[in-house]
Amino acid sequence: MTANAACVTCGNPLTEAVAGRRYCSNACRQRAYRERSSARDDAPHDSALPAPLDTFVGRREELAALGRIGTDRLVSLVGPAGAGKTRLAVHYVSKRADQVWWTALAPVSDVVQAIYHAVGARPLPNRSVRDAVIAEIDQHRRPLLVLDNCEHLLADVADVVSELLACCPRLRVLVTSREPLRLAGEQVFALGELDLPPVGSDVTEALRYDAVVLFRDRAVSVDRSFEVDSSNVADVVAVCRSLDGMPLAIELAARRITVLSPADVLARLGDRLALLTGGPRAADDRHRTLRAAIGWSYDLLSPAEQAACRRLAVLGVPFDLGVASTVCGVEDALELLTSLEQKSLLVVDRAGGHTAFRQLESIRLYCRERAAECGDIVVVADRVVEWVCSIVEPEISSFFPSPQVVLRLDRHVGLLELAVSRTAEAGDWSRHALTIVATAWTSTPRGPRGAPTELLHQALSRPMPQAYRSALTVLAAMHHRVRGGWHVTRKFAQESLSIERADACRPGTTARALEVLASAEAHTGNPGLAWQLFDEAARSCATPTTSSRAASC
After folding, report:
1. Residue ranges of the alpha helices (H) in 42-181?
2. Model confidence over 488-537: pLDDT tens digits?
3. DSSP label at 356?
4. Which of 167-171, 324-328, 527-531 has the lowest mean pLDDT?
5. How many CB atoms lie within 10 A of CB 220?
6. Domain ORC1/DEAH AAA+ ATPase: where (predicted)?
7. Contact assessment for residue 475 and residue 435, using Cβ atoms and an 8 Å cutoff
8. Would you say 90 and 50 are in contact if contact means Cβ atoms under 8 Å apart?
9. Nearest to 128 by CA among 41, 39, 5
10. Whose CA is closest to 189, among 59, 357, 69?
C-alpha cells in the first residue's frame, strides 16, 4: 500500500495503521458490500457466456488437457484462424463452478474498459478504472477472467493481465488468441486440427473422427436428408483432409450441401476462398467467410511478415530455414519464421533430426493470392532457381554429388519442379541445365530418381556452357543405361567424354563418362575396350580432386 492510498468507498487517505487494507473503517466496507450487492444484477456489463445454438463436436483430449492445467493462473489457448478457440473456451468454462467473466475483445480497442464492464465493476472515488476492476475481482473466491480474441491488442492485454495477476492472487485468466502473450508463468495451449481419418476409411471408421462428425452435423443442420454413406464417405474424408481438419472451413464446406454433393465440394476446393462463404448471420464478420478469417490474421502482421507469408506460399511444399532465408531475401529468416509460427501461420514438422516448415493449405492459398497481387510469384521462382543452382554448381564436376547435397535436394524435391519450369519459361538454358541435373541427382528409397527422358533430351537441344552439357550428357547416358538402351548410352557417353578430353579440367566428370562408356562397350560386345575404359576411369578417380568422393570407383 502506497503512502497516498485512499479508501475505495469514501476516498479518505488511509493511515499507516491500516496499511494493506482497502477501507478506512468497517462502515465503509459494509457500505461497499451493500452497493455491490444491490447493483450487481443491473450493472452494465457483458460477462455472460456466449450461448452457441449448434452442437459442440469432439475435442475430448483437448478438454481433458485443459482440465489438467486448469489450476495454472494464466492459460493461453492459441491456434490459427478457424481452429475453434472461442468455441472450445466457451465449452470449457461453462462446465466450471468458478465466477466466470467473459470478455469479447474482437470489437473493442480499450482492454481495461472492456474488462471493467465484463466484471461489473463500479466507479470508485478518486480511483482509476483499473483499481475498480481489481477491487471487484478481489471480492470473489474463485474468479476466472476469459479474454477472447486478443491478437489485435496483444501488448495492451499483456500489460493489463500482468497487473491483474499481480494484484489479485486468486485470479485465473484464460486467453484465446492467435499468438501467446509471452508473459512469465503463461501456459500455452496450442489448438490444432480436428482428428482426421485415413484415406480409404469406410463409413464406420470415418465417423469415429471428429472432422467427419462435424461435417455431418453441420450438413444435417441445413439438409435433414444428408447422411454419410458408402457412396460419399470417400469424398467427405477427402474434403476434411483437404481443409486440414480446421473446424471453420469444414463447417462452411458442409453448408454447401444444400446445392452441392461432397464430390462437388471437393472438386471446387481449389478455389476454396470463393467457395467457403455464407457462415451464420449471427456470426461476426471474421467467421462468415474463410477469406475474412485468414485476412484478419494477415492484416495484423508487419510488412516484413506479410511479405514472408506471401513468398513462402508460392513454394507450395515444406521448406527448411535455408530455403526460407533465400526466398524471403534475408540472411537468416529464423526470427521471421519464429514470429509466424507463434502467430499460428506456420506449422513446424520435425522428423529424422530435421525441421521443416509449412503453411496450412487454406492459409497458403490466401497468401498466394496476395503474392500474385503483389508480384511476388516471379520473384520467388527466381530465388528458388538461385538456391538450386547454388547447391548444384559446386558439385557439377564431381564423380558423385556429396551425400549431403543429395539429401538436401531430396528433402526439397518439390522445389525442383518450380526451378525447372521457371528457367524454361525465362529461356535461361544454362541454369535450366543445372535444375535438371538437380532433378537427376534426387533419389527414392529404391534408388536414383533420375530426370524424365523428354526433359533431358529437350535440355540438350538448348545452348549451354560445355561443362554443363558434359554433365547433362553423361546423366542422359546413365539414364538410358538403366533402361538397357546401350547404343544410346554409348552415344551420350562418348559426347561427354569428348568434351572432357578437350577441356581436361574435370576429372570427376571424365571418370563418370569413362565408366558409363565402359559398361556400354561391355554390353555391346567389346569387352577388351571396356576393360581399358574402366582402367582409365579408375586412374581419373585417383586424381586428388576426385579420389575422396569416388573411392568406390
Report:
1. 60-68, 85-94, 111-118, 129-137, 154-167
2. 888 988 888 888 888 767 778 888 888 888 888 888 888 888 888 888 87
3. E
4. 527-531
5. 16
6. 71-165
7. no
8. yes
9. 5
10. 69
Number of H helices, E strands in the chain: 27, 9
Higher pLDDT, 28 or 487: 487
Following DSSP, what letter does each residue of 153-192 receive, concatenated? GHHHHHHHHHHHHHH-TT-EEEEEESS----TT-EEEE--
Quick: pLDDT tens for 45-71: 335 777 777 888 888 888 888 888 767
Question: What's the CA gap between 20 and 10, in Å, rounded?
Answer: 16
- Quick check: 100 and 93 in contact, CB under 8 A? yes
Cell numbers given for 247: 473446424
DSSP state of 193: P
Query: Cell 472451413 appears where?
Result: 249
Read off the pLDDT of each residue in 90-103 and give the average, rounded to a whole number.
83
> How many residues are given for the chain?
553
Extract the C-alpha cell encoding 432: 535450366
CA distances to 60, 332, 367, 386 from 329, in Å: 43, 9, 17, 11
Distance, CA of 72 to CA of 171 (rounded, Å): 10
